[in-house]
Amino acid sequence: MLEQLRQFPVFANVPDEQLQWLIDNGEEQRINAGTVLVKPGETVNHLTLVLDGRIVIDTGQNGPEDDIAVYDKYGILGALPYSRMTSIPNRIVAESTSQVLQVHRDKLRDMACLHYELTEVLVQQMTTRVRNFTRYTQQEDKMASLGRLSAGLAHELNNPVAAIVRSAETMKAHLRATPDAFKQIMHLQLADDKVDIVNEQLFKKLDQKALQLSLLERSSYEDELTDWLDDYGVDSGNLDLVGPLIEFGFTTDDLNWLLDQVGPDNISGVTSWIVNNLVTQSLVRDISDASERIGTLVGSIKNYTHMDRGAGKTTVDLGEGIRSTLTLLDHKVKGSKVTVMLNLANDLPAVCGWPGELNQVWTNLIDNAIDAMPDGGELTISSEVEHHNDGLTFVLTKISDTGTGIPDDIRDSIFDPFFTTKEIGKGTGLGLDIVQGIVNHHNGSIKVASQPGHTEFSICLPIN
């Protein structure tokens, strides 16, 4: 056994008598493949040295692809000196028939007092494990955020893309009717000054914003315009005249003015020509609005990921990051019937930090707030400058929701790794742990206050 322990690279400089202490205080076991050493949530009571075989920590769901950590021959896992770990949310299982040496955690206190070199290398193992765990949790949270944002971005892009395709197809069909409208125009007898007057009136209407009418108001306008067009024998052919006229604010008074300018013989052709231009303008406006929406979304994701900047510390506009995050989560806000109140001071100073990390903070906190209001509610985000007595200046950002609140008995646990109140498959328990780590990385602080109907997270970040 001593020779086997000597094969562990970490024990290269540990005296034989200290390794012998491990042997004397441990228990050698042969574990069959598939045996579960620790179930999810159970207490981890032993320091485990893998003498042969393979031990893995996994989620216990989908096979090898769900392995979180793998310990082959000469691997060390489980309880370690000074570690605060008592249990894990995953399982520890033997992937193959394995031989292990296990030491109960109650013996580790004596080891720390008696054997410095052995304790030192095991503490180093613990710090390595913490670094690996932190890297893993951050990567998991980034992937979870990426998944949420990708789904949201795809959903948000679908609407403007569909609008562009729909408008383009309508434009094709509309242009096929242009030759008939052109024939009518060619038969008109209008002086140049009358044409200029009609054009001037048309462009005034094109520059106006679309009217916002109730159903009752729109129905009333439709009846009035339809009766006017029938009274003066305006032939619409296959073209809907009334809809575009209402959209651009034409009334019967406008049509009477037009009749005075062009006369009864020309009114049908002129009206059809005007409507033809209105329809074209409407389709172009729809395509322009949809394209602008796509541009806004692309700009938001670019700002969110900071893909055009380096990975180092830089000045960060918190308001810009919060707005970009809200844009990318807009589909979830609308789907949850949540009202967003955004109160960001106009004179917010920039803070010094890592933009990508801070955007993760906003994503996790806003996402959690929305989840806390499944039946709708109000999400309030505010930021303001705060001056402390020590002369330092901070930006205080508060994110609050009107959900059910956080029970008192779990409030102290919400920042713990893997702690979650969400259903299985809906929460990893990594979000708030990552949030706290990022805020600490920026030398800031995060606090939570909660009662039924009001939960508020306060994030205080220094400017420098």
Automatic annotation (TrEMBL):
InterPro entries: cNMP-bd_dom (IPR000595), cNMP-bd_dom_sf (IPR018490), HATPase_C_sf (IPR036890), HATPase_dom (IPR003594), His_kinase_dom (IPR005467), HisK_dim/P_dom (IPR003661), HisK_dim/P_sf (IPR036097), RmlC-like_jellyroll (IPR014710). One of its GO terms (molecular function) is phosphorelay sensor kinase activity. It catalyses: ATP + protein L-histidine = ADP + protein N-phospho-L-histidine. Its EC number is 2.7.13.3. Residues 287-464 form the Histidine kinase domain. PANTHER family: HISTIDINE KINASE, SENSOR HISTIDINE KINASE. This is histidine kinase. It comes from Spirosoma oryzae.
